[in-house]
């Protein structure tokens, strides 16, 4: 088992490198002169070209490619065009915020999703189950950014139940006890949306797995031995169905990181996703490159961890190729 | 391909198919049924942000434009973009899936690793990065969307091809000396149309939502073409005193996404194997 887990983690290293190559070739394919983004917009064309020469823009492609790989490994993408701060600092400052937001949403989203699936499977095709399934379809079809903006408009701006954005209020920074509480207070809305969206997917998957398990013979024999409905569901069906939920874990990580980028942007939450979108809007390309690579690395590593978890839960997963 | 008896009895097919049909018809007929010019400022200052009523069913936006008319033309832009992107993505995915499934072990490994790589990167990140570096415009958007949505159909088609390649009729054709391209075209392709259709219907929802998200972030189809995503984005700024500007296009997107997903689920369950 440990060998399988180690192999999954090792495999993610070339995948990370390949992700970085993808970004490199996107940059290469970009039309126009990237020179214009790399220097002062008011500089003359000649000065811009000279500047570009310093950056090594006119070096042959393999040289640039090698430098790119070097930069990726050392995670050194130079300085932000906007404020001149090292890109690495900006990204690593934002990282813990994203990890907190997506970590909380992932764990609570899965917990809530499993709980909802259990309620659905209590009486399959019953009124409650149908209601839950229908609301699931409805919630899954509403764009995340739309939910986020309405939550800000009503819960925060109109009714003032929650802050409109940010990660912590300035006056809460000085008092240590209040500090943590205020951070949680700021997390409720953005995390709530991600939890809701995640739990819908998880509930759908887990319910299907539970219903499939409930048709098996060992469930029938448990019922025949007089096990209560709760005991059959929690003690027999759930453990046998959870492996498919765990398999969903890996698939939902890239998706969740993408979703949290949008949510971070709406709630002005200082994570990597917002950094990325803001940098895109202002054409701060060094930051864009670093953020794309960081977000992809997070997704790939999260995937590898989820695979490891899947092997822990279901040893059969070890022989299965990826996904 | 599909069990049509099951499909015909499925209420989801009728509901979702009907919704998508109505939206597509509305988009196609927009120039004839739209009550106002979608781009025209209806002039008078007092027509800015009129709430829904008899004159303007869905109200007007900040620039005094009729929301319903803009939505009808937006259906055109959004659905056409989604259809083109999904068509391109599923064709690409089917092609890659067939090559991977029939082209031998090495090619299979290589192509599926590329698919895994694309799947592993958060979709919105891939979309935004590609969009930023490749520039704006409707065709670029379609290209970028199709580049981020081909993986699932490739995987589905590939697993189907792998099964088909070992079925008796394919082995028999090979034994009779039929060339590989002919086997793939005549005997394998008809069997992968089912999974391709399933991934296409499920993909429509994803592409519509992605297009709206990109427009919301300011990287979608540029003005003046009215797209639903762009309408939501412009309505967001007046959300507290003009909820209708963004609510109706958002409802349209949600309804289409939900219908596409329901239809995809129904097709998936009715797949005859």
Q: What does this molecule look like?
A:
The complex is a heterodimer of chains A (323) and B (273). In chain A, 76% of the residues lie in helices and 0% in strands. Chain A has 323 residues and is an all-alpha fold. In chain A, helix 5 runs antiparallel to helix 6, helix 5 packs antiparallel against helix 10 (229-266) and helix 7 (144-158) packs across helix 8. With 273 residues, chain B is mainly alpha-helical. Chain B has a single domain (67-272), classed as MetI-like (MetI-like fold), CATH 1.10.3720. The longest helix of chain B is centred in the C-terminal third of the chain and has 37 residues, at 180-216. Chain B starts with a helix and ends with a helix. The mean pLDDT of chain B is 83. Classes of the chains: A mainly alpha (323), B mainly alpha (273). At the A-B interface, helix 1, helix 6, helix 7, helix 10 and helix 11 of A face helix 5, helix 6, helix 10 and helix 12 of B.
How are the elements arranged and paired?
The complex is a heterodimer of chains A (323) and B (273).
Chain A: H1 2-29, H2 35-38, H3 45-55, H4 61-74, H5 87-122, H6 127-141, H7 144-158, H8 176-214, H9 217-224, H10 229-266, H11 272-281, H12 285-313
Helix pairs in contact in A: 1-4, 1-12, 5-6, 5-8, 5-10, 5-12, 6-8, 7-8, 7-10, 8-10, 9-10, 10-11, 10-12, 11-12
Chain B: H1 4-9, H2 11-28, H3 30-33, H4 67-102, H5 105-120, H6 123-134, H7 138-149, H8 151-165, H9 168-175, H10 180-216, H11 228-236, H12 243-269
Descriptive terms for the model:
heterodimer; A: 323 residues; mainly alpha; MetI-like fold; 76% helix; 0% strand; B: 273 residues; 12 helices; 73% helix; elongated
């Amino acid at each position: 088992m440990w060998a399988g887990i180690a192999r999954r983690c090792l495999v993610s290293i070339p995948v990370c490198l390949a992700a970085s190559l993808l970004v490199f070739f996107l940059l290469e394919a970009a039309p126009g002169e990237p020179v214009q983004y790399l220097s002062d917009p008011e500089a003359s064309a000649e000065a811009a070209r000279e500047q570009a020469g310093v950056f090594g823009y006119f070096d042959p492609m393999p040289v640039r490619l090698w430098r790119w790989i070097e930069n990726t490994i050392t995670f050194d993408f130079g300085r932000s065009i906007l404020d001149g701060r090292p890109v690495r600092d900006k990204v690593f400052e934002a990282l813990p915020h994203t990890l907190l937001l997506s970590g909380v949403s992932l764990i609570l989203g899965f917990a809530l999703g499993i709980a909802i699936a259990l309620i659905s499977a209590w009486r399959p095709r019953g009124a409650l189950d149908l209601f839950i399934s229908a609301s699931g379809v409805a919630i899954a079809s509403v764009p995340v950014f739309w939910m986020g903006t309405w939550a800000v408009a009503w819960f925060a701006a109109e009714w003032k139940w929650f802050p409109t954005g940010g990660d912590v209020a300035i006056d809460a920074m000085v008092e240590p006890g209040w500090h943590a509480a205020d951070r949680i207070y700021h997390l409720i809305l953005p995390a709530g949306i991600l939890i809701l969206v995640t739990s819908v997917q998880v509930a759908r998957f887990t319910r299907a797995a539970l219903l499939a398990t409930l048709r098996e013979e060992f469930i029938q024999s448990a019922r025949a031995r007089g096990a209560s409905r709760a005991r059959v569901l929690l003690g027999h069906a759930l453990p046998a169905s959870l492996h498919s939920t765990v398999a969903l874990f890996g698939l939902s990580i890239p998706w969740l990181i993408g979703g949290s980028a949008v949510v971070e942007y709406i709630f002005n939450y200082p994570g990597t996703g917002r950094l990325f979108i803001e940098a895109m809007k202002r054409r701060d390309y060094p930051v864009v490159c670093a953020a794309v690579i960081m977000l992809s690395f997070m997704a790939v590593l999260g995937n590898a961890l989820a695979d490891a978890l899947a092997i822990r839960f279901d040893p059969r997963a070890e022989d299965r190729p990826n996904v | 391909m599909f069990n049509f008896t099951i499909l015909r009895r499925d209420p989801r097919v009728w509901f979702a198919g009907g919704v998508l049909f109505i939206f597509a018809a509305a988009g196609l007929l927009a120039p004839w049924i739209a009550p106002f010019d979608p781009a025209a400022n209806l002039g008078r200052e007092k027509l800015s942000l009129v709430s829904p009523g008899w004159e303007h069913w869905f109200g007007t936006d900040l620039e005094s434009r009729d929301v319903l008319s803009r939505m009808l033309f937006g259906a055109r832009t959004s659905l056409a973009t989604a259809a083109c992107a999904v068509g391109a993505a599923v064709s690409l995915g089917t092609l890659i899936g067939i090559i991977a499934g029939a082209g031998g072990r090495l090619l299979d490994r290589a192509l599926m690793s590329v698919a895994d790589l694309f799947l592993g990167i958060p979709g919105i990140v891939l979309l935004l990065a590609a969009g930023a570096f490749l520039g704006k415009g409707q065709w670029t958007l379609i290209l970028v969307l199709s580049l981020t949505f081909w993986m699932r159909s490739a995987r589905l088609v590939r697993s189907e091809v792998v099964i088909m390649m070992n079925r008796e009729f394919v082995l028999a054709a090979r034994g009779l000396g039929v060339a590989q391209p002919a086997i793939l075209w005549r005997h394998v392709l008809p069997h992968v149309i089912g999974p391709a259709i399933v991934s296409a219907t499920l993909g429509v929802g994803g592409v519509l939502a992605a297009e709206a998200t990109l427009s919301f972030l300011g990287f979608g189809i540029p003005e003046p073409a009215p797209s639903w995503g762009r309408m939501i984005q412009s309505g967001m700024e007046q959300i507290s005193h003009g909820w209708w500007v963004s609510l109706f296009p958002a409802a349209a997107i949600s309804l289409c996404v939900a219908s596409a997903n329901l239809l995809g689920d129904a097709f998936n369950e009715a797949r005859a194997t």
